[in-house]
Structures are given as C-alpha cells and as structure tokens.
Amino acid sequence: PSQPIIAVSILSADFGQMAMDCHDVINKGADALHLDVMDGHFAPNLTMGADMVKGVRKHLPDTYLDAHLMVERPQDYVEQFAKAGCNNFSFHWEVTTDNPERNNRVEGVNATDLIKQIHDLGMDAGLVINPDTPAQALEKYLDQIQVALVMSVWPGFSGQKFMPEVLAKVQWLRENGPDTMRVEMDGGVAPETVQACAQAGCDMIVSASAVFGSDDRQAVIAALHDGAKY
Ligand code: DX5
Ligand code: ZN
C-alpha cells in the first residue's frame, strides 16, 4: 500500500562513532533510524536511553527516529524521549495490564493511557508483540496506534535468526488494522527474508546486522527497499 520504510537499527553500529555511522546509513538510503532501548530486565541486555536519541537528533535534525522500548516501565521514559526528539515510541504489549502473565514484580501499564500520553507529546505510538504473543492481543488498539511491531526474534540482541512462523501474525494485522497503520518487522531481516515480510503485509522493516555487517551497506539497503516493495 504505502511506500515501505527501511529503518536501520543502530544497535549494530559502532557506538564509538555513532553520529558517523548514522550519517552513513542515511546517506546510503535508509529512511529512518531504529533505536533499541533495553533495561536489562525486560530484555537481557543494556543498550541506550534518551540521551542517545538526543545525541543522534543533534547530528541528524531531519531523520525519523523510531524508538523500540524493551523495558519494564516504558511509562517512565515517554516524556524524556519526546523531549530528546523521538518521532515514534513503541512499547511491548507484554508489559501492559492486558498480559495475564504479568506478575507483581512490576506493575503493568495501561496501554490506552500510554498511547494517549505518547500522542499528547506529539509522537507516533507503536505496540510490539514478542514471538509468542498472538496478533489478536493488539485487536482493541489497532485504531489507536500508528505502528504494530512484530518481533521475529527474541528481544535482546541483533544478529539472531529470523523466525518465519511470525509471518501469519503480520497477515492478520494487515487484514484487521487500518490502511494507515504500519506493520513493522524486527529481527533477522535481510535481503533474503524481506520479501516474505512484504508479501505478508509489512511496510516497515528494521535491520541492524545485515546492514552494518556488510561492506556494501548501500547495496543491502537497496535490496531491502526492493524486497519490501514486493
Ligand atoms: C532485537 C532488536 C532488533 C535487533 C535487530 O532485540 O529489537 O531491532 O537489533 O537486529 P538484526 O537486524 O541484526 O536482527
Ligand atoms: Zn528493535
């Protein structure tokens, strides 16, 4: 339907030369940058926070910044991410009060309230589902969110293998969500797997290791664009 967006995840960038790497992939055809935020609790890794958004924003004033919060309490960070210059704020369905498995270690967040807060701060809102969460979990939010993000790996690290079994969820989201809602795929997407994602209905693609791991980043981003137009 709409032009596909290729969002390059900076998780595979060289953190010691972040601005340079961001400029590089944008100059080589990336449409947006994806920022993977982890707190060491929801996902078994520590990555970056709002200061990274701020730093990237300072060097790339016009780039769409897509933040993916893999944290227990996304509600604690929404304001600082907005102030830092974030365009999209995506949080996991698994940390919301809708998740029956949510234990009392951390109190769940009300998804509708958080979506409203994200919108009030001028950002697009996204809801993310882990590989074992059904697409139907997002049903009541499809008219409120701009992005439904389907994880095709377990949150934590770049460079993992794409899980094709999540493609059926993309199909369901595409069929049941409004045309204006993007369906984003994240994890193990490379030129070899992007066409299946697009065919299922994805119009937003995340890629970290396939892009940063290549010595011809321009060719990889072009291949992702081509495959995503499928
Ligand atoms: C996984 C992150 C992904 C990841 C993608 O926890 O949400 O965005 O960095 O990396 P690749 O493209 O290497 O699978
Ligand atoms: Zn991500």
UniProtKB/TrEMBL annotation:
Catalyzes the reversible epimerization of D-ribulose 5-phosphate to D-xylulose 5-phosphate. Pfam families: Ribul_P_3_epim. The keyword Transcription regulation does not apply. One of its GO terms (molecular function) is D-ribulose-phosphate 3-epimerase activity. This is Ribulose-phosphate 3-epimerase. Its EC number is 5.1.3.1. The active site is at D36, D186. Its cofactor is Mn(2+); a divalent metal cation; Zn(2+); Co(2+). Substrate binds at S9, H68, G156, F157, S158, G159, D186, G187, G188, A208, S209. One of its GO terms (cellular component) is cytoplasm. HAMAP family: RPE.
